[in-house]
Amino acid sequence: MEVKEKKAKVAKQGVLKRIAGPVVTAVNLDAHMYDVVKVGKEALMGEVIKIQGDNIIIQVYEDTSGIRPGEPVENTGLSLAVELGPGLLTSIYDGIQRPLAVLVDKMGNFIERGVSAPGLSHTKKWSFKPLVKSGDNVEPGTILGEVQETNIVHRVMLPPNVKAGIVKTIKSGDFTVDETICILNDGREYPMIQRWPVRVPRPVKEKMNPTIPLITGQRILDGLFPIAKGGTAAIPGPFGSGKTVTQQQLAKWSDAEIVVYIGCGERGNEMTEVLTEFPHLEDPKSGKPLMERTVLIANTSNMPVAAREASVYTGITIAEYFRDMGYDVSLMADSTSRWAEAMREISSRLEEMPGEEGYPAYLAARLSEFYERAGLVISLNGARGSVSVIGAVSPPGGDFSEPVTQNTLRIVKVFWALDAKLSQRRHFPAINWLNSYSLYLEALQDYYDKEVSPEWNKLRAWAMEVLQKEAELQEIVQLVGSDALPESEQVTIEVARMIREIFLQQNAYDAVDTFCDMSKQYDMMKAIKLFAEFAYAAQLAGVSPAQIIGVKSKNDLPQIKFIKDYKPELAKIEKQMDAEFNALRSAA
Amino acid sequence: MKEYRTISKIAGPLVFVEKTEPVAYQELVNIVLFDGTIKRGQVLDTSDDLVVVQVFETTTGIGRDSGVRFTGETIKMPVGREMLGRILSGGGKPIDGGPEIVPEKRLDITGAAINPYARGMPADFIQTGISTIDGTNTLVRGQKLPIFSAAGLPHNNVALQIARQAKVPGSTETFAVVFAAMGITKEEANYFMQDFERTGALERAVVFLNLADDPAVERIITPRLALTTAEYLAFELGMHVLVILTDMTNYCEALRQIGAAREEVPGRRGYPGYMYTDLASLYERAGMIKGLKGSVTQIPILTMPGDDITHPIPDLTGYITEGQIVVNRDLHRKGIYPPINVLPSLSRLMNLGIGKGHTREDHKKVSDQMYAGYAEGNDLRGLVAIVGKDALSERDRLLLEFADLFENRFVRQGYDEDRTIEDTLNLGWELLSTLPVEQLTRIDRDLINKYHPKFKTGAMKE
Q: What is the predicted ipTM?
């Protein structure tokens, strides 16, 4: 970093030669790939993306209307970096880490251009408590001290790209992010802030295989297709199938300690919804407002396309930074398709040879580089942290065979397939249980055995089997009607319907049902299994399927979802089911 | 102002000009023909040696001898309070015989993005009087909710009915309407105009007409002029504005035409790769702003080529807008008006504008239950065609009947029938009461006891 800052001083001024949308060409500019430049008289921020002889090609993060050839271009000599330090949490940024609240103050309700705003407040004082003392050896990534940022403790670390050293002075008290808090024996001084180039993954000591599930409180996810802490998942689905609601549910309820939510090329009103809602929602674990653990990045669809391309990197770099402190971070990117389209748009302006469907040939590489930044790691300071990445994909026409979906599926371990058919019948979350999968099941088995119940894995397998069987039976039902099925299979259809309607359907807008912990999930599934056992036994004893389907007490089961203290009610229903089936069996 | 006579190439709507002084990107250009007529255009690409100009009118008459004047500014729109009640061309010139607009302000038509942090949350329920919208796909102030239609369907009537009946219950403010026609026929335009006049809506409307025989490229700016006007009325004058854009399909065709003329690498079906971003720059200009009084609500209309909802135009639109209202040919053939198919329809902001304090506490659950019942009943129709009605179980038979009832009672309504939200929800309960109560799994018991016609307080005593 020191090296780069020296270079910045010798950076030259160039001249604009051509402007065509967000891509401009400059000449007479001394530049390297991905250097950040200031374009035109208004000093719009841009980044060098191609060098061709004397022509330096730049993508500009702001609208370029009104810019003329001949205007100056200045190279800062730095790469696109984010500011990391206390003040990140509860912030809402655009794609290049400009705080949107500050932009409102500086330029009003609309996003004008040419305004720069630092990612962190440089005037606010934070109370810093040292954790090292003079004479201590410190290495890259060592935690120097703590700041109580919100209800989250912000661990201030030595940047990962510097040499080890010995602490000479460490301060304690209230400081801005720029003030020196630590001086090493060799004279190097460090403030709380560090800058990190967004396109470079932050280094770690070791990457490990994930073994703990990210509990999301969503039954179909935790119950059937879990994602591990440090894992990757994709949610592809056509429009209106509930990608955004699912992403927001994950941002709200997943048991990560930090949440980074990237609204990449999506709707402005959706971000407003998040902004208005999050401060009022409580984290089910800590009871504190959810906003206190959240960093939002909002580069809506009508904000500059180049900044949209950068937004994903900005988000993951912030996520990695908190991971290095030893936190479990989950990152939601909604939607990676818009990010891919931003790449396509820039690429076509560069007149690059297109790959599939006009996307650049490096699409697959970019996607895999991004998802590979997820993981459960031992950070440089020895803390265990994780970044889980959940990317929404918006395939054109809902067709999963398109390049972004396909290239994503090759990398991610969990696939939550959204289905327009399900959302049309208001089956939410509209995740198709037959097409979805999770490759973490085996790795997580031990956790479920220990933390939920030794029965859980079997119960899950049973539910999947019933659903699979139902799919086969439905094909016959479509042809001949359900009365033509053998009696035991009519029971199976009923049981599957219960799994779908009681267990899988979940109301994100109901105060209780929006979050369902593992033990309740287990109890609900067990109750359905209990019904199934009663039902098959009764059927063998000669009770007709119509009578079994007519059992009254099971109709109360769905109500369990909406009751917070559900156990007494559930016990009552189970008892009634037992009684009703007993009566049926003795009558038969 | 300097006039250049250095046109080197003319291709479709594009004019290439050589050796100019530095020209700004997106600058407004006037091209002077030999007979003195002036055609307007905009800079698409600028460099030291070549400037590409997109001409908004036909390029007929432009030759290498034509003069090119660069105006030094981007396209600005004169706006003012007086615009209400006026009819303008797709290029923003008055065509109603009235005087020129006296501008109170001149605004850039590109429009800056609303800072997401400054946005107000849309939560005011708009009652359109149409059950399939109010009850199951609720519109709220500041939303963008397109109508997905196809050739030969009565989408215009639906749009007009919304424009006519839209109100926020409990508020006396009416909506100002900004209507932008892009490439529609004179006949269609007349239909809109007559209805506006019949109902007196024209007084509080601004109309932009780019008709089928007007230059296609002009369609690129028509919606931008309309939205600039809408933003002015909403955010500077504090009005609630309803913007109707029709037909977005023609707009996208114009976009493709320019892309092709520029020899760009095409995306899906020949539409430009940046069409998502371009459409977003229009659709995202809906919303509310914290601390300001007005709002911009958008109802874009598009016709799906070949009734195909996966076609790039409806597809990209659906990814940007907050839901869609789908007009359906089968329902139309059955003689049902408005032929809105609720199954693929959706309003993403519905949950913000309904429920206690907005409409009624049972709204969400009644809507979900009707959806579920109709979806299942609709599926059963396929089965009945194979096995006959007699092979159905009692449960399925009731669902099948529910689907028919739903279409005939809930969906069907008159062109001038203005149902209140209470009417709509009560109608919903009435239809749901034909199903066994234990099948209403999506509604909790408290609500059933309160609203179900057979159970609500008083029903027992009768």
A: 0.86
